[in-house]
């Protein structure tokens, strides 16, 4: 089995994140790290690999040269190889173009499963996995909290407003996971050493071949600062706080 | 602490990845457990050690040929120790304690001994270890030990008592220093390798400690304990030399540990000073508070530079006896100052067990005592002048 895991680097979630008010894009100037949701996606692949020798896991990403650090981390966690699409022409690429490039890169690898995070912690558009699936004409099983992978199919569980849904698709397929999915492992010291010797392939857009045409282009018309959150409602206990609290939670469909 | 990307000394990509890994581990696995381990008093967090062993933190400093990570340079050990002890001083020291056992084995051991006694410290099932020199009547003056190893057919018979031995009882393997020639001081000291369960060897109750409670210390009693000849580490009379070699390395690593703890206290105090308001402004805007933070930052910077400098000299094969003592003195006293200053900065909340700084203040006091007190560091430094 060959698994591709889509990863990207994002500004550290521990730091303050800001939008550039002029371009409307996330300010990525600070230290970028491998997106945690991608580490979980990688964990799905690595668990399968742990249990099934001969599995090959390739991390695929598009991004600037500083991305090497994140890819090496993925390799030190246990991925077998990395493929990075690096091209000045891709600077500022939106979700559509990113998906087109990633789909092209994944196609060149001929994999059985593509695993992605359901949405990145920076852009948070959450559309890339679906677009990649569309470009590759593969079924998509998205926003999975739990994944069971086998030779022939992937079975996943997704939360819904009222409960959970279990669904399966035959392979090959694209899946995306949520932050409820398996917690990612730490890289290991041995992994860090062997990561040096693993293959990290860098390709330009031209080397990828024909990109799917007419992917459209996002244009940002205006940006808005989100309004300050109003103070929450305070429930004073006059003997009926439990009741009030339950009612409040129910009115918001929280219970 | 420098804000830009000019590092103290250039790190390789690998070392940077190691620092990131240790920072993650310290943040997610160590820091959240600090208080619980402190309150438990005498329960070593074996589960954290196991988790650390799985990813190679407990054996990274051991040579590859025995199954270790192969990062035998003291510089990398310092990078790791600083991060882990930022998480919690006691837990950080606990999970890297096997390096302390390995040092004399590497310095004095035969190839066979290294294989036998170090391979068992590698991999996910790594054993625990202790190093025993201190006795009730012999601390700073370690050449004055009275535990004896008398020659008997096929080996030695050990009689005596050790005190303050970290991980004693929990540990499966011990390096024990004893006199093969009681008429001599340092020249009479010999090192021996022992396994737990050797007949005649027993342990006292956990000693009640001020801090660093992740590491439980006990006394060890030796009552005619037979050690075969093959488990003598180095030649007779070489033990003290081995111990001193151990100290040059372990004092530098201890300096890194102390620097990490100092940084933790500083960062905690800085954040608090920025958010706590008194007299209508954040307390950091009161100069007395800001200046104390300035002193903390300055002393941490200088400790870290001295520590890494000593590590690099050591790795280059230089004699660092004086320099290691300087780094240890500077870093441990910095950690004591910074944790004291953090408690002061947090005021009454600093004194509360709801915040970690009072615990760190108790924890780091040990760094001014173990592996040679500050007085002994000054003695070593002055002898190297
Ligand atoms: C938590 C903990 C863990 C420990 N773990 C271990 C371990 O794993 N293995 C081990 O072997 N030991 C261990 N020790 C022992 C430790 O190394 C000794 O406590 C230390 O060396 C000091 O010895 P002492 O306590 O006997 O103090 P003493 O030597 O009695 O010192 C008392 C005071 O006198 C001062 N002093 C002594 N001599 C001089 C001098 N010549 N000049 C100036 N001042 C002097 C000292 O600085 C100190 O202030 C541990 C101790 C502690 C507290």
Written description of the protein model:
The complex is a heterodimer of chains A (255) and B (385). With 255 residues, chain A is an alpha/beta fold. Chain A has a single domain, classed as HUPs (Rossmann fold, 3-Layer(aba) Sandwich), CATH 3.40.50.620. Helices cover 27% and strands 24% of the residues of chain A. Chain A is built from 7 helices and 12 strands. Chain A has helices at residues 36-51, 68-77, 95-107, 128-136, 189-195, 205-208, 241-251; strands at 2-6, 9-11, 32-34, 56-62, 81-85, 113-117, 140-144, 146-149, 153-159, 164-170, 173-177, 199-203. In chain A, the strands form 3 sheets. Chain A has a 7-stranded parallel β-sheet, sandwiched between helices. In chain A, strand 4, helix 2 and strand 5 form a beta-alpha-beta unit. The longest helix of chain A has 16 residues, at 36-51. Chain A is globular and about 70 Å long. Chain B has 385 residues and is α+β, with helices and mostly antiparallel strands. In chain B, helix 9 (287-315) runs antiparallel to helix 10 (321-346). Chain B is globular. The interface between A and B is medium-sized, with 14 and 17 residues. The site of flavin-adenine dinucleotide has 21 residues of chain B, from strand 1, strand 3 and helix 12.
What is the topological layout?
The complex is a heterodimer of chains A (255) and B (385).
Chain A: E1 2-6, E2 9-11, E3 32-34, H1 36-51, E4 56-62, H2 68-77, E5 81-85, H3 95-107, E6 113-117, H4 128-136, E7 140-144, E8 146-149, E9 153-159, E10 164-170, E11 173-177, H5 189-195, E12 199-203, H6 205-208, H7 241-251
Parallel strand pairs in A: 1-4, 1-6, 4-5, 5-12, 6-11, 7-11
Antiparallel strand pairs in A: 2-3, 8-9, 9-10
Helix pairs in contact in A: 2-5, 3-4
Chain B: H1 13-30, H2 34-40, H3 46-55, H4 74-87, H5 89-95, H6 98-108, H7 111-118, E1 129-132, E2 148-152, E3 155-166, E4 173-179, E5 189-195, E6 201-203, E7 217-228, E8 232-233, H8 239-275, E9 277-278, E10 281-282, H9 287-315, H10 321-346, H11 357-365, H12 374-383
Parallel strand pairs in B: 1-4
Antiparallel strand pairs in B: 2-3, 3-7, 4-5, 5-8, 6-7, 9-10
Helix pairs in contact in B: 1-4, 4-5, 4-8, 6-8, 8-9, 8-10, 9-10, 10-11, 10-12
Bound molecules: flavin-adenine dinucleotide.
């Amino acid at each position: 089995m060959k698994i591709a895991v889509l990863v990207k680097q994002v500004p550290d979630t521990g730091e303050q994140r800001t939008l550039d008010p002029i371009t409307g894009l996330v300010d990525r100037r600070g230290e970028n790290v491998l997106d945690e949701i991608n580490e979980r996606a990688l964990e799905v692949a690595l668990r399968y690999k742990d249990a099934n020798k001969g599995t090959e896991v390739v991390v695929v990403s598009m991004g600037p040269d500083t991305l090497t650090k994140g890819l090496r981390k993925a390799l030190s966690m246990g991925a077998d190889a990395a493929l990075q699409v690096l091209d000045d022409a891709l600077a500022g690429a939106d979700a559509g173009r990113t998906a087109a490039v990633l789909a092209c890169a994944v196609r060149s690898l001929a994999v059985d499963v593509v695993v992605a995070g359901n949405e990145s912690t920076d852009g948070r558009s959450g559309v890339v996995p679906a677009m990649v699936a569309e470009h590759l004409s593969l079924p998509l099983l998205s926003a999975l909290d739990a994944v069971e992978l086998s030779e022939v199919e992937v079975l996943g569980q997704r939360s819904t407003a009222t409960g959970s849904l279990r669904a399966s698709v035959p392979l090959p397929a694209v899946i995306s996971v949520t932050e409820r999915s398996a917690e990612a492992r730490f890289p290991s010291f041995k992994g860090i050493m062997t990561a040096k010797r693993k293959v990290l392939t860098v390709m330009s857009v031209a080397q990828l071949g024909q990109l799917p045409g007419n992917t459209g282009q996002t244009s940002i018309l205006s940006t808005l600062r989100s309004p300050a959150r109003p103070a929450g409602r305070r429930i004073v206990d006059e003997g009926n706080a439990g009741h009030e609290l339950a009612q409040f939670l129910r009115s918001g469909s929280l219970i | 602490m420098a804000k830009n990307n000019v590092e103290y000394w250039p790190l390789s990509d690998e070392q940077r990845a190691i620092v990131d890994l240790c920072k993650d581990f310290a943040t997610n696995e160590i820091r959240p457990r600090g208080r619980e381990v402190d309150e438990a008093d005498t329960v070593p967090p074996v589960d954290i050690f196991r988790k650390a062993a799985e990813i190679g933190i407990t054996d990274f400093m051991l040579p590859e040929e025995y199954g270790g990570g192969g990062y035998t340079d003291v510089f990398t050990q310092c990078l790791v120790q600083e991060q882990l002890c930022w998480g919690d001083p006691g837990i950080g020291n606990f999970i890297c304690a096997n390096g302390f056992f390995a040092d004399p084995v590497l310095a004095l051991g035969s190839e066979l001994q290294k294989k036998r006694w170090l391979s068992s410290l590698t991999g996910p099932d790594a054993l625990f270890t202790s190093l025993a020199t201190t006795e009730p009547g012999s601390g700073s003056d370690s050449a004055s030990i009275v535990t004896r190893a008398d020659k008997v057919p096929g080996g030695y018979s050990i009689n005596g008592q050790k005190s303050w031995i970290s991980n004693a009882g929990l540990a499966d393997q011990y390096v024990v220093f004893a006199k093969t020639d009681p008429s001599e001081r340092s020249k009479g000291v010999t090192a021996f390798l022992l396994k737990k369960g050797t007949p005649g060897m027993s342990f006292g109750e956990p000693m009640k400690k001020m801090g660093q409670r992740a590491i439980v210390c006990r006394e060890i009693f030796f009552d005619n304990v037979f050690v075969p000849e093959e488990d003598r580490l180095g030649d007779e009379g070489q033990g003290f030399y081995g111990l001193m070699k151990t100290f040059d390395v372990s004092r530098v690593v201890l300096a890194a540990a102390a620097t990490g703890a100092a940084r933790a206290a500083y960062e905690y105090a800085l954040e608090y000073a920025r958010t706590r308001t008194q007299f209508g402004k954040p307390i950091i805007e009161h100069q007395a508070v800001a200046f104390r933070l300035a002193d903390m930052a300055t002393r941490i910077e200088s400790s870290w530079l001295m520590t890494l400098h000593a590590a690099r000299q050591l790795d280059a094969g230089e004699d660092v006896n004086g320099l290691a003592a300087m780094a240890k003195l500077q870093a441990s006293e910095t950690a004591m100052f910074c944790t004291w200053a953090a408690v002061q900065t947090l005021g009454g909340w600093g004194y509360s067990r709801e915040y970690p700084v009072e615990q760190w203040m108790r924890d780091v006091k040990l760094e001014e005592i173990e592996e040679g007190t500050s007085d002994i560091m000054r003695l070593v430094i002055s002898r190297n002048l």
